[in-house]
Amino acid sequence: MKMYEPFAAACRASALPLEEGYPLRACTTLRLGGPAQYFHEATGAESLARLLALAQEHGVPVTVIGRGSNLLVRDGGVPGLVVRVGSGMSAITRSGCALTAEAGASLGALARRAAEEGLAGLAFASGIPGSVGGGAVMNAGAYGGELGPLVTRVEGLLPDGTPVAWDGADITWAYRRTSLMDSGAVLTRVTFALTPGDTEQILAEMTELNRRRAEKQPITEPSAGSTFKRPVGGFAAALIDQCGLKGASVGGARVSEKHAGFLVNHGESAADFLALMRLVQETVLRETGVRLEPEVRIIGVDA
Ligand SMILES: Cc1cc2nc3c(=O)[nH]c(=O)nc-3n(C[C@H](O)[C@H](O)[C@H](O)COP(=O)(O)OP(=O)(O)OC[C@H]3O[C@@H](n4cnc5c(N)ncnc54)[C@H](O)[C@@H]3O)c2cc1C
User: Fold this and answer.
1) What is the pLDDT of residues 213-223, one digit of tens each?
2) Ligand 1 centre and the CA of 135: distance in Å?
């Protein structure tokens, strides 16, 4: 593995905390994968900008993660620098009917805050276990709602640490894809335009949606949510089920019996999980002609 000692020394000199060999499996809901060569927990946009500038100056590759709920980290871990934008950057503020959240805030906390403030529009997001930044980049959605239409402003940092901002209307929002992905920016803050609503009603809607989620999805088992995107004109879970793959496994990786769109992990090996993904994709293609594309983001290198 390429070593970046001058970068680590420059971070130490600038009082930017770095951990070496940090176990990334602890940062993901799938509980898989090797370590980050260098790991930084973001605590603010200014220090993050300085860190990104140093990484670029020293030629260190940077990977950003949020709450790790849509991530498969390979067994060999991630070379270079991994920055987590999570609970260290999670403030939420209100201005009129808008909420602005730092990118590390959880979508659950954002939805709860909106409900408490009597602001409607985010109930659909309350059970999505990701961050505001990860959710915006992925245009996360559920139960007919998506984040994109609510977003009025996104702030971030370009790979050299320069601040950048977009109006929501200037961003392309597609199904689990956005133009933010192509920018290479680390998102730091997102503003959502909401509408006045009744707190009790919004909380009741959230409770109902989360009850439906718990009934249908294996939310108590380690997973990254739906492993594959919804193909045009169909549902990944239905196709996987139709091919008789419920319960199929490679090592500790298994197609959930409860919801075939979820591949769950009861083992230690990202390679097994990737092999199961390939098995599912190949079988579904052979049996139905449909090519399933991963929704889960795969990072890092093989062991
Ligand atoms: C049980 C379960 C249920 C789920 N249900 C849903 C659902 O209903 N709908 C849905 O859409 N998703 C669902 N997901 C998937 C996941 O929660 C979402 O995709 C979520 O938006 C990912 O956010 P994250 O912070 O965990 O991102 P991560 O998994 O950490 O990262 C995902 C991607 O976002 C990028 N990213 C993260 N933070 C930033 C940032 N600050 N700046 C720039 N890029 C960033 C990463 O580089 C990576 O490419 C589910 C997952 C689980 C485990």
Assistant:
1) 999 999 999 99
2) 5
